[in-house]
């Protein structure tokens, strides 16, 4: 009987040890303490999508919760000015977006440049005969009498409306989006067909296609701009380290073109930005240290 009781006790003890072993949990992985939420206003331009997603990933790695808020450009300015958004990623100065800064600038701070020497205007494939905006009417029938634009709230569209009026162009400006405009360009280019689109640099289109800006004798589209970002009032007090990182941030045609190109190739801004970040740690370490 004693042997039987001892055997039962040993079985019970063994079972408890097994249960205890199975119930053991590893220590939780160290969590990055949340540093608050940052709302970034993002419009639908390729470079804006690229850098917004890049910064979302970089800031989340540092413990911030980041929300990307998609909106037309004018809405981004208004949102930052009223404190509904923390950051507006893309402001072209001193020319293209000057009117937005004049209208809404009382409520935000213009920060440092992260890209220099932009261009914008009317663009065609290099195989087309036209070289100047003043020549467009000579080809109106051949080119379909239309200019494929982007979102209607953009400065580029307003400048193009001015160009149509100034040059008395027999063309209709088609409101669309960056992606729709690029789809039209891709279709035309693939078939060696004519098309006139509104475009700007930086843009990945110039890495994929042989394109040219049409000369603009009247200077409707202005001189080159630089791209800066804006922050709401008080942001520098709430998130000084973020502002320090972003005011150190700078990209050139190669780095920004590579980022946009990878995103376009993989078809996903988060995956593409992640891939670019992994391949560019040396550059990122110059911004964030």
UniProtKB/TrEMBL annotation:
Range of residues in the leader sequence: 1-20
GO cellular component entries: ATP-binding cassette (ABC) transporter complex
Primary location class: membrane
UniProt keyword annotations, A-Z: Cell membrane, Membrane, Signal, Transport
SUPFAM superfamilies xref list: Periplasmic binding protein-like II (SSF53850)
CDD domains, sorted: PBP2_OpuAC_like
Subcellular location: Cell membrane
UniProt domain ABC-type glycine betaine transport system substrate-binding: residue ranges: 37-278
Coiled coil: none
InterPro entries: ABC_Gly_betaine_transp_sub-bd
A biological process term (GO) from this entry: glycine betaine transport
Pfam family, one: OpuAC
A GO term, aspect molecular function: carnitine transmembrane transporter activity
PANTHER family assigned to the protein according to its UniProt record, in alphabetical order: GLYCINE BETAINE/PROLINE BETAINE TRANSPORT SYSTEM PERMEASE PROTEIN PROW (PTHR47737), GLYCINE BETAINE_PROLINE BETAINE TRANSPORT SYSTEM PERMEASE PROTEIN PROW (PTHR47737:SF1)
Protein name: Glycine betaine ABC transport system, glycine betaine-binding protein OpuAC
Source organism: Candidatus Syntrophocurvum alkaliphilum
Organism classification: Bacteria, Bacillati, Bacillota, Clostridia, Eubacteriales
């Amino acid at each position: 009987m004693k042997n039987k009781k001892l055997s039962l006790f040993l079985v019970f003890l063994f079972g408890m040890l097994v249960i205890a072993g199975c119930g053991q949990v590893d220590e939780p992985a160290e969590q990055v303490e949340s540093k608050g939420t940052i709302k970034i206003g993002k419009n639908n331009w390729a470079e804006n999508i690229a850098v917004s997603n890049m910064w979302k990933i970089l800031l989340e790695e540092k413990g911030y919760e980041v929300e990307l808020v998609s909106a037309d450009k004018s809405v981004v300015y208004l949102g930052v000015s009223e404190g509904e958004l923390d950051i507006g990623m893309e402001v072209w100065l001193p020319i293209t977006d000057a009117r937005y800064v004049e209208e809404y600038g009382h409520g935000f701070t213009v920060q440092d440049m992260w890209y220099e020497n932009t261009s914008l205007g009317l663009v065609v494939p290099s195989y087309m005969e036209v070289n100047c905006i003043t020549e467009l009417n000579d080809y109106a029938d051949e080119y379909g009498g239309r200019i494929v634009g982007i979102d209607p709230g953009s400065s580029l569209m307003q400048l193009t409306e001015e160009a149509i009026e100034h040059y008395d162009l027999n063309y209709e400006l088609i409101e669309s989006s960056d992606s729709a405009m690029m789809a039209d360009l891709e279709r035309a280019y693939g078939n060696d067909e004519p098309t006139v689109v509104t475009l700007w640099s930086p843009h990945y289109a110039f890495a994929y296609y042989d394109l040219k800006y049409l000369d603009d004798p009247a200077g409707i589209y202005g001189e080159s701009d630089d791209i800066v970002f804006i922050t709401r009032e008080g942001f520098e007090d709430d998130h000084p380290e973020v502002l320090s990182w972003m005011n150190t941030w700078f990209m050139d045609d190669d780095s920004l073109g590579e980022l946009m190109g990878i995103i376009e190739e993989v078809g996903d801004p988060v995956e593409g930005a992640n891939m670019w970040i992994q391949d560019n740690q040396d550059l990122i370490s110059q911004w964030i240290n």
